[in-house]
Design a protein that fits this description.
The structure holds two protein chains of two kinds.
Chain A: H1 2-8, H2 10-19, E1 41-46, E2 50-52, E3 69-73, E4 81-83, H3 91-95, H4 103-111, E5 117-118, E6 121-125, H5 133-151, E7 156-160
Parallel strand pairs in A: 1-5, 1-6, 1-7
Antiparallel strand pairs in A: 2-4, 3-6
Helix pairs in contact in A: 1-2
Chain B: H1 2-10, E1 15-19, H2 22-28, E2 32-35, H3 50-66, E3 72-75
Parallel strand pairs in B: 1-2, 2-3
The chains are: A alpha/beta, B alpha/beta.
Chain lengths: ~160, ~100
């Protein structure tokens, strides 16, 4: 209900953001991108709760969220994927998964030579992670994904929220 | 999502994200982000807008080559809203699909 209101009335969402506590930082980490996209292997990561239909859905029973991740192979199609996430209105994304996770479009860019390739492993998290799971996310699951991206020689990562 | 982005960037892989909230991004400070004004649940526009989805991916790929300052949020409005600071240049004239 709140998710639908926030989608429909962005000013309500902005007011909620102003009053809500977030993890805050003074600066940003930085790794320079020195290559060209057309020479790059690109990975797509979302926090929209997307996962393979055969995979374990994100845990909606824990009010602190599910700090785990799901792998999505480069050749996954819209028919292979679904969304488990109760904290945003994904009615439109259910119609077209590319609204939150444009893997099919990214493959088209690879076919056109605008990027070198799509990473063999792409990843999905669930947004809406609050303590104590923020610690798990930042110290365990997100670093594990970073390691897998390095194993796959990924050159750059595109991230999409919901 | 900014938290995951920060961890990956810190591990040595360049990242760029779509942000749906400049308010959140100003606090979490992802290394590079693009704000286009689409509503929550719609980082890549609306269902079956294939051209828009490709355009947004291209915008991210271009922006990662041009952003030089850590923590930059590029505002590139593609939809009209009440935001007085940033005019949506593509919303007038022939680009009225949204």
């Amino acid at each position: 209900m709140l998710a639908k209101l926030f989608t429909r009335f962005p000013s309500l969402f902005r007011r909620w953001v102003r009053k809500h506590q977030f993890v805050e930082f003074d600066d940003s980490p930085w790794t320079p991108f020195t290559g060209r996209p057309s020479d790059s292997r690109v990975a797509l990561i979302t926090t929209a709760g997307v996962h393979l239909k055969g995979d374990t859905p994100f845990n909606m029973r824990d009010p602190a969220g599910d700090p785990g991740f799901r792998q999505i192979p480069a050749d996954a199609t819209a028919a292979d994927l679904k969304i488990t996430h109760n904290y945003y209105d994904h009615a439109d994304a259910d119609q077209d998964i590319n609204v939150v996770f444009p893997l099919e479009r990214l493959r088209e860019l690879a076919q056109e030579g605008e990027i070198a390739s799509v990473s063999p492993r792409n990843f999905s998290f669930m947004g809406h992670i609050v303590p104590p799971h923020i610690h798990t996310l930042m110290n365990r699951t997100a670093p594990k994904v970073a390691g897998m991206l390095k194993e796959d020689d990924v050159d750059l990562v595109l991230l999409t929220p919901a | 999502m900014g938290l995951v982005q920060r961890v990956i960037e810190a591990a040595g892989i360049p990242t760029i994200s779509v942000t749906l909230s400049r308010g959140i991004s100003n606090k979490v400070k992802p290394p590079r982000a693009v704000f286009t004004g689409f509503p929550l649940g719609h980082p890549f526009a609306f269902p079956h807008q294939r051209f828009r989805q490709l355009q947004l991916l291209r915008l991210l790929l271009k922006s990662i080559t041009t952003i030089e300052e850590p923590g930059t949020i590029i505002v590139h409005k593609l939809v009209k809203d009440e935001d007085p600071e940033h005019h949506c240049v593509l919303c007038d004239g022939i680009f009225t699909e949204d």
